[in-house]
Amino acid sequence: MALKRYEIDELKQKVVHVKKRGMDLIRDPMLNKGSAFSDKERDEFNLYGLVPPHVSTFEEQIKRVTENYRRKDTDIGKYIFLEALHDRNEILYYALLLKNLEELTPIVYTPTVGTACQQFGHLFRRARGMYISAKAKGDFKKRINNWAEDEVDVIVVTDGSRILGLGDLGASGIGIPIGKLSLYVACAGIYPSKKLPVVIDVGTDNEALLKDPLYLGEKHTRIKGEEFYEIIDEFIVAAHERWPKALIQFEDFTNDHAFPLLNKYREKLLCFNDDIQGTGGVALAGLLASMRITKEKLNEQKIIFLGAGSAAIGIADMIVAGMMEEGLSKEEARKRFWFIDSKGLVTSKRGDKLAEHKVAYARNEKFQKTLLEVVKSVKPTVLVGVSKQTGAFDEQVVREMKKHIDTPIIFALSNPTSKSECTPTQAYEWTDGNVVYASGSPFDPIKYKGKTYSTGQGNNMYIFPGVGLGAIVCQATKITDSMFYIAAKTLANLVKEEDLKKGRVYPDLNDIREISAHIAFAVCEVAYANGIAWTKRPENLLEFIKSKMFQPIYLPYKAV
After folding, report:
1. Exposed/middle/buried for 452, CB within 10 Å: 0-12, 13-18, 19+?
2. Half-sphere exposure of residue 91: CA atoms within 13 angstroms, side-chain side
3. What is the mean pLDDT of residues 34-55?
4. 180 lies in which domain range?
5. Which of 12, 74, 81, 421 is 20 to 30 A away from residue 485, measured at CA?
6. Is 472 within a domain?
7. For 195-249, how does the pLDDT look when each residue is reduced to its tens digit (9 = 90+)?
């Protein structure tokens, strides 16, 4: 969302009071303006001789860093360049990101962040965020107090156990919270100084990392069982005591920990799991928009999931809520789902003990081993891929689906791009162009029979920044599923007709700040209606939310 002229003028009347001088000021990424310090600031803060003589405009700086970014010929090279900019000048970094969001998001986050996490120990340059080590158990409160900022609005925390579709990356998983929080700032205007990325290092079972001399985490196998939960609990208590109003976002925990952690803390403090609730919200939004293309109702869909982990169940639970709004009972809605895990169709009759999160969706019918078998018997309208099985939606499966429905809906949501169950090109070719397709990672627009399709990316960045912003603005006491549901409906309603004509079931990412503001508005309304907001509702809530969003522009400095 571009700043209006009057907003810029109003902001420029504000002054930042600064104590630092000289190189101390230049080395602070939140205060550094580089070559853009004014002559007055150079004199007042002892900067003459420490920066080039020309006073650059902000636009000149953006042009310079854009040119240098585009000179990089590899995605990982671009990632390193952006993180270096992030480390030296946060205002410029976020201005660049917001100006080129569609181009830079795949570098800052999925898919490139996955590669960066895999190589984290080899790419490491400067510490960002907090590393909470298991060996410091009993001392977490003291460690937490080492963080310099007394105001933190959002904490994104991982244990590095299930990074995207790449598995256990241990302490190297810190790249995911770093990337997610960059999106919080760019998409929803959370203040950069009020975010905190955290990795809780309980070891790793990744043998390659344990043998890597440059791995930066604890070199032992993962701590499991009750001790694992004791470590997480000590961190949560310490963080919540230091920052009682901060939102805690759980990120990339394995399924056996993701659900228990969410269930344990969700009623006690402001928290959510983005892999479960955020993914569910963004997938529901895509399906609701898809209904506008197929002219059908959500409660009429028959949905097959390939994958039955936290993302799959989160998506299903959110769709069930949508079907219930359209008149079905919870039991009736759940009967419209079929889940396939690593063993085959999830049924109550197949003989193995099902994980607790799968039980509610277990079918009471004959077991079938393969996706193709299930597609043939169910005749689904929707295929959702959250399996991390590259190419699992093959030609035979897609053509079989197309036999029974005019316009199949195929959501190949596994990340990164290399793990996608099928590509948009394959989906369009195998359905003769009659398909609604979305992916988890970005694909370039494709041409099929003379028409260009810009397929949508079911990226959680459409949902979680706005939900977080809303919760922070109204000071919600907890995050509810109804907040994610209303966020999904809001997002779906923001998809324009021209988007749908291009095959997109998500809005243009360039509108992300406006999208996040509207989602935050809807979330606040839920909080106020349910009596779980500490603040009083402002008269003009939407404008109030927008006024709270950080804008990446330089403000004048005054010495103190």
Report:
1. exposed
2. 17
3. 97
4. 127-274
5. 421
6. no
7. 999 999 999 999 999 999 999 999 999 999 999 999 999 999 999 999 999 999 9
What integer pLDDT is reported at residue 13 of this predicted model?
Answer: 56
Q: How many residues does the chain have?
A: 560
pLDDT at position 352, please? 82
Separation of alpha carbons 340 and 361, rounded Å: 11
Question: Are residues 418 and 330 located together in one domain of the fold?
Answer: yes
The domain boundary residue, chosen from 224, 242, 274: 274
Q: Is the pLDDT of residue 481 over 60?
A: yes
3-state helix, strand, coil in the chain (%, to 5): 50, 10, 40
Q: Is 109 a catalytic residue?
A: yes
373 DSSP 8-state letter: H
* Two structure tokens written together for 498: 């021209």
Round to whole Å and give the CA distance between 368 and 382: 18
Q: Residue 57 above 80 pLDDT? A: yes
Tell me whether strands 337-341 and 154-158 are parallel, antiparallel or unpaired: unpaired
User: Which of helix, strand or coil describes residue 436?
Assistant: strand
Asked if residue 11 has pLDDT above 80, the reply is no
* Token pair belonging to 70: 């585009």
> Which one-letter amino acid corresponds to residue 178?
I
248 and 317 both lie in a single domain? no
Find the CATH number of the domain harbouring 202. 3.40.50.10380
Count the domains in the chain. Answer: 2
**CATH number (domain holding residue 342):** 3.40.50.720
Strand-pair category, 303-306 with 337-341: parallel
Say whether pLDDT at 3 is over 80. no
Q: Are residues 284 and 378 in the same domain?
A: yes
Task: Report the amino acid identity of residue 243.
Answer: W
Yes or no: say if 446 and 428 are a contact pair by the CB < 8 Å rule: yes
Query: Would residue 490 count as lying in a domain?
Result: no
* Catalytic residue (choose from 79, 94, 109, 462): 109
- Residue 559's Cβ-count burial label (10 Å; 0-12, 13-18, 19+) is middle
The residue from 242, 258, 274 where one domain ends is 274
Assess whether pLDDT exceeds 90 at residue 456: no
Catalytic residue from among 33, 69, 94, 180: 180
